Structure formats: structure tokens, C-alpha cells
């Protein structure tokens, strides 16, 4: 089968579409084509119902044209005007999956896969914990190999610290960053472990500088955005994983490793994220970070695999019905 994984190209959004496509391809033979949608002018900012002829306003590189795929997996608001019409364009051949809550009637797609914390329901809605992602044990092993020489000699426990930043609901002030640095430094020094810290593009510069200054004396690695990204290698190497509370992707990816996940408090609050973290806690994957490391075990969370199995089953059922 041919699968298109469609987004506007932003890393976090694209990873969800590609992650689900890869999970489907692990269950049935498939060729994956990654499509990055671009809009000319301001058309892409229009609501879906105002964008009447969406293909006319796409940039040439978008590549949304026949032959159409068997499976269309899209994520992000920029894809909505296209996903809504994909079935018609393909003459009913293409099975259309929209990730996240599209904020439009779910019956416009074959299947909608939102996070559970969006509380969306319906016959063609499959809520999952968090978001689809690209983390597999094989990928973690492969990525670890690239950084093996830098990580192998580091003392244990190895603590991965995955930092997000400013969003609609959250922020990381200098004051909170200083508290965070203190909470991480003390137990690491006491236990003689090492630090594997990575920032996101949303991490405020002041917070980044402060955390780096306070923690760079510890054994380990702090990735500043230059050179190859060790994010997946850090997940593979870590004994404990600390994740700021602002990212669905990072929390879900961390929980897929089966390692203890601690949620780091930020400035701000969000009911949706509180629900996500409660779900992760209920599955035994995550706990709030209280300034000390401790281990526990749980079954790695594989919601991406569960969603992929449901997509394959529903496509098989549709094909059987259509004869």
C-alpha cells in the first residue's frame, strides 16, 4: 500500500503523521511518502470552510496530486482543507485519517485519532493517550550507536532532562529555571550520576543559559542545538527521564521506553495536560518530580502501535465491504 504522511513540516507535527505511517508499515507492506504542505500568500491561514479551492493555493513542492495514496495520514491545521476533500479527489479510493482534534465534524474523515485529553468521541474517533510518535526500541538502539563514544563512559544513574518552553499554556521563567536546576543538581551530585539534557526551540534563551550555567559542571552532555540531535540517544541511555509538562510528544515518547518518567513543573497550568499526566500516572508510566530519583517498572506505552492496528483493521473491513 502507499501511505502519504502529510503535515506543514513542523517537526513535532510531522513526527506524529510519520510515526503512525511507520507503525502501519510495520504491520502491512507499505511505501511511505512524506508530504509537506505549503500555502502561497495568506491562504493557509484561512479557516477550512473559507478555502474553497485549496490545491490552487498550494506551493508546487507540496505535491498533493494524483496518483492518490491508499492511506492518507495528516496532522495539523494546515492539512484540513485537503484532508476534507481527499476522498472525493481519489474517487473514494483513499482512506483518510486525521490526527489530533480537527475541530470540524469527525464524519468528514474516515478516522480521527485525537489525544484522549481532548475528550472527543464518535463512531469514527479513536482517542489515544498522547500522540503518535516515531520511537521504537530499534530506533533507540540505532540512535544510541551514533553517540555511544560520548555516553558509554558516563556514570549511572544517567538522567535525561527534556526541556520544552513557551506555549499558550506554559512558560519557563528564569526563577522557575533556577528552581529546576537546583532540583536536578542536588540528587545527581548525591548519587554520582550524569546529565543528558536537551532544549527545544521553544526554550527561552534566559532559561537555557541559566540551566546550562548551573548544570554544566556535572558529568554528561548538554545539547545546545548545534550538530546532530542526541534526543533519541538520550532516551536510549537514560535510567530516569525528566520531561517538562508542556509537551504531549515528549511525555508520550518517554513513556514508550518503559523507564521511569518524572514530570517537571513549569509556570502556568492546563487542564488538558493535567489529564494527560493523570493518564500516564494511572498507567504507571509517570510521576510528578519531587527532587529525588527512584525506579519502578511498567509496561511500555505503545499507543502508536494500537492506533496503527485499528487503522489496518478498519481499512480491511472497508475493503471487504466494497468487495
Task: Provide a compact summary of the structure.
The protein has 323 residues and is an alpha/beta fold. The protein has helices at 11-25, 80-89, 137-151, 174-191, 205-215, 231-237, 248-255, 271-282, 303-321; strands at 2-7, 31-36, 71-75, 95-99, 111-113, 158-163, 170-171, 194-199, 220-223, 240-244, 261-264, 267-268, 286-288.
What report would you give on this structure?
- The chain is of the alpha/beta class and 323 residues long.
- The protein contains 9 helices and 13 strands.
- It has helices spanning 11-25, 80-89, 137-151, 174-191, 205-215, 231-237, 248-255, 271-282, 303-321, and strands spanning 2-7, 31-36, 71-75, 95-99, 111-113, 158-163, 170-171, 194-199, 220-223, 240-244, 261-264, 267-268, 286-288.
- The strands form 3 sheets. Strands 9-8-6-10-11-13 form a 6-stranded parallel sheet, with helices on both faces. Strands 2-1-3-4-5 form a 5-stranded parallel sheet, sandwiched between helices. Strands 7-12 form a two-stranded antiparallel sheet.
- Strand 1, helix 1 (11-25) and strand 2 (31-36) form a beta-alpha-beta unit.
- Helix 1 (11-25) packs across helix 9, helix 3 (137-151) crosses helix 6 (231-237) and helix 4 packs parallel to helix 5.
- It is elongated, with a radius of gyration of 21 Å.
- The two termini are 17 Å apart.
Amino acid at each position: 500500500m502507499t501511505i502519504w504522511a502529510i503535515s506543514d513540516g513542523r517537526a513535532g507535527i510531522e513526527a506524529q503523521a510519520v510515526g503512525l505511517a511507520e507503525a502501519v508499515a510495520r504491520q502491512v507492506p507499505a511505501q511511505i511518502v512524506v508530504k509537506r504542505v505549503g500555502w502561497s500568500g495568506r491562504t493557509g491561514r484561512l479557516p477550512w470552510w473559507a478555502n474553497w479551492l485549496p490545491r490552487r493555493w498550494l506551493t508546487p513542492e507540496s505535491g498533493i496530486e494524483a496518483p492518490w495514496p491508499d492511506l492518507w495520514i495528516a496532522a495539523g491545521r494546515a492539512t484540513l482543507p485537503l484532508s476534507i476533500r481527499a476522498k472525493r479527489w481519489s474517487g473514494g479510493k483513499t482512506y483518510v485519517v486525521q490526527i489530533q482534534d480537527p475541530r470540524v465534524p469527525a464524519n468528514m474523515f474516515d478516522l480521527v485519532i485525537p489525544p484522549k485529553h481532548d475528550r472527543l468521541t464518535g463512531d469514527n474517533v479513536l482517542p489515544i493517550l498522547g500522540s503518535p510518535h516515531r520511537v521504537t526500541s530499534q530506533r533507540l538502539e540505532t540512535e544510541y550507536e551514533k553517540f555511544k563514544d560520548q555516553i558509554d563512559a558516563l556514570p549511572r544513574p544517567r538522567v535525561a532532562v527534556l526541556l520544552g518552553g513557551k506555549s499558550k499554556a506554559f512558560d519557563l521563567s528564569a526563577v522557575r529555571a533556577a528552581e529546576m536546576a537546583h532540583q536536578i543538581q542536588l540528587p545527581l551530585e548525591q548519587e554520582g550520576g550524569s546529565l543528558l539534557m536537551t532544549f527545544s526551540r521553544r526554550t527561552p534563551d534566559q532559561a537555557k543559559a541559566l540551566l546550562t550555567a548551573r548544570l554544566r559542571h556535572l558529568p554528561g552532555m548538554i545539547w545546545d542545538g548545534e550538530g546532530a540531535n542526541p534526543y533519541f540517544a538520550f532516551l536510549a541511555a537514560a535510567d530516569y527521564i525528566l520531561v517538562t509538562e508542556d509537551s504531549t510528544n515528549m511525555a508520550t515518547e518517554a513513556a514508550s521506553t518503559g523507564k521511569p518518567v518524572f514530570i517537571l513543573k513549569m509556570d502556568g497550568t492546563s487542564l488538558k495536560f493535567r489529564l494527560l499526566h493523570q493518564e500516564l500516572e494511572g498507567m504507571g508510566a509517570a510521576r510528578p518530580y519531587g527532587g529525588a530519583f527512584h525506579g519502578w517498572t511498567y509496561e511500555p506505552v505503545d499507543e502508536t502501535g494500537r492506533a496503527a492496528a485499528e487503522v489496518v483493521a478498519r481499512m480491511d473491513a472497508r475493503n471487504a465491504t466494497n468487495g
